[in-house]
């Protein structure tokens, strides 16, 4: 609803809500909550609830007036005595997560735009990113790049810095392969114009490693991360390359190595970053995930993530993307530990908090909803199907058809459909497979997961003779990409053995979260 529509609806309900009041209550607040506002806020909530379906996820936190007023007043109590800061997401900043150039931008040679209009445009990218509007951040970055290139040419340091921004947000908006190609070209031009040791050249090497790994070639990404970490510099670019290298090691199944790398990295991160910095939480979450993959002990992983969730909630906020990520992983491990009702409660609250603080379009909210759908499917399949349908449309509208989050939701929607109708699931799998192949490549682990799920559907519909060639191709690709000891390789090997026998009743494809 537009502000004027809300004002008119309030008048029809006998309530006076000036447009300025509505605007003030709905804008992103930079001041403490203010207990004195609860009366007007109650009127606004009443109007919005009257125009919202009661079963809509966004309505849930506001149905109990006493509960939301208590939360509002708790914010006021928490922030009393000092000005509240705008929420941080861990991705804001024109150079993206976690801005490896932080603290160096004023220094020589970074080439940051000095023109006031250009600087304000760059600042807008960070604001859009903080709101989860990655496609819009990408579009503004492209406009910024166009204007700077017209003024300065391709290889001016200012232009190279802006090209970094544009390439990064292309990837964050969903197209990892395009970001990789743009960063590869940018690296060559930074080397030619600035030299191998320049900060922008090293940043391009870090970004190239990141996009290479996330675009499907984790082994090559891992090698590139190692090269950056070995170049002798002792700064945030090196530390983030070590963190990325541990993640890439986990991606290729080298769990012991990833765990060892993170154990050696954490003390260095503590020394570099201020206490409770998002990078530290990201590393702790990685370490918990790696340890769980190494031990397969849901109980141990559950306890580890409980501590991380408590610390992140206290220091970053309950709806910071990293807090939400830890909370979602915790819910999944609680489910794996045999407590479906508690895990559902945790996942639902995570999604509600994301809706309240970040809004339904934010990538972290959509990702939390995706995890909720996977857990919900185990206890209420019809409700999971409805939720996934809503999330799919919401994510397509907010992030695009082929963003990482949208494709994960679309994959899970196909899996849930498969549970009751393999024939209807088959085209859904094919659409996600084709999209992931375009965006990530045919051998990215996520693409291979969807291809495996499609092979399940083929097996159910057409039998083992039709499914066996698909499974053989997937198995060879997984061995090549992940290594022979990776758990996913064991899965396709087992499926191949099954497909060589009489066609059994197989479970549907694996969900993704």
From TrEMBL:
InterPro entries: NLR-like, TPR-like_helical_dom_sf. Residues 77-100 are annotated as: Disordered. This is Tetratricopeptide repeat protein. It comes from Streptomyces flavotricini.
């Amino acid at each position: 609803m537009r502000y004027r529509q809300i004002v008119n609806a309030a008048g029809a309900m006998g309530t006076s809500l000036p447009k300025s009041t509505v605007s003030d209550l709905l804008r992103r607040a930079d001041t403490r909550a203010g207990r004195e506002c609860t009366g007007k806020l109650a009127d606004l909530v009443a109007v919005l609830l009257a125009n919202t379906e009661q079963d809509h996820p966004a309505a849930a936190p506001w149905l109990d007036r006493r509960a939301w007023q208590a939360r509002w007043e708790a914010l006021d109590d928490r922030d009393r005595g000092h000005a509240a800061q705008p929420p941080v997401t861990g991705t804001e900043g024109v150079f993206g997560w976690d801005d490896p150039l932080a603290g160096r931008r004023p220094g020589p040679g970074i080439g940051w735009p000095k023109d006031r209009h250009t600087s304000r445009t760059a600042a807008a990218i960070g604001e859009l990113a903080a709101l989860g509007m990655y496609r819009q951040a990408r579009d503004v970055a492209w406009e910024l790049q166009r204007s700077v290139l017209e003024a300065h040419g391709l290889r001016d340091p200012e232009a190279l810095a802006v090209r970094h921004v544009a390439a990064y947000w292309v990837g964050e908006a969903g197209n990892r392969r395009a970001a990789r190609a743009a960063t590869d070209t940018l690296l060559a031009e930074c080397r030619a114009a600035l030299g191998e040791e320049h900060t922008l050249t090293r940043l391009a090497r870090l970004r190239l490693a990141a996009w290479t790994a996330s675009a499907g070639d984790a082994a090559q990404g891992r090698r590139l991360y190692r090269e950056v970490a070995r170049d002798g510099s002792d700064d945030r670019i090196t530390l983030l390359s070590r963190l990325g290298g541990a993640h890439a090691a986990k991606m290729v199944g080298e769990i012991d190595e990833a765990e060892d790398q993170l154990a050696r990295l954490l003390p260095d991160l503590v020394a570099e970053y201020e206490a409770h910095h998002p990078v530290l939480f990201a590393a702790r979450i990685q370490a918990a995930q790696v340890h769980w993959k190494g031990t397969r002990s849901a109980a141990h992983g559950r306890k580890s993530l409980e501590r991380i969730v408590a610390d992140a909630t206290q220091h970053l906020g309950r709806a910071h993307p990293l807090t939400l990520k830890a909370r979602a992983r915790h819910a999944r491990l609680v489910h794996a530990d045999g407590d479906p009702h508690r895990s559902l409660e945790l996942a639902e609250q995570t999604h509600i908090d994301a809706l309240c603080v970040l809004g339904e379009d934010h990538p972290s909210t959509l990702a939390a909803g995706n995890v909720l759908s996977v857990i919900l499917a185990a206890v209420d399949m019809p409700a999971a199907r409805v939720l996934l349908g809503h999330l799919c449309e919401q994510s397509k509208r907010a992030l695009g058809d082929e963003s990482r989050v949208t494709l994960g939701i679309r994959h899970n929607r196909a899996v849930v459909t498969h549970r009751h109708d393999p024939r209807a699931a088959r085209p859904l799998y094919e659409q996600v497979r084709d999209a992931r192949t375009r965006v990530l490549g045919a051998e990215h682990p996520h693409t291979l997961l969807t291809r495996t799920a499609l092979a399940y559907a083929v097996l159910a519909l057409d039998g083992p003779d039709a499914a066996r060639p698909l499974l053989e191709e997937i198995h060879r690709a997984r061995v090549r990409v992940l290594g022979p000891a990776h758990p996913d390789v064991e899965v396709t090997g087992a499926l191949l053995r099954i497909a060589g026998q009489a066609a059994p009743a197989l479970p549907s494809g694996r969900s993704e979260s």
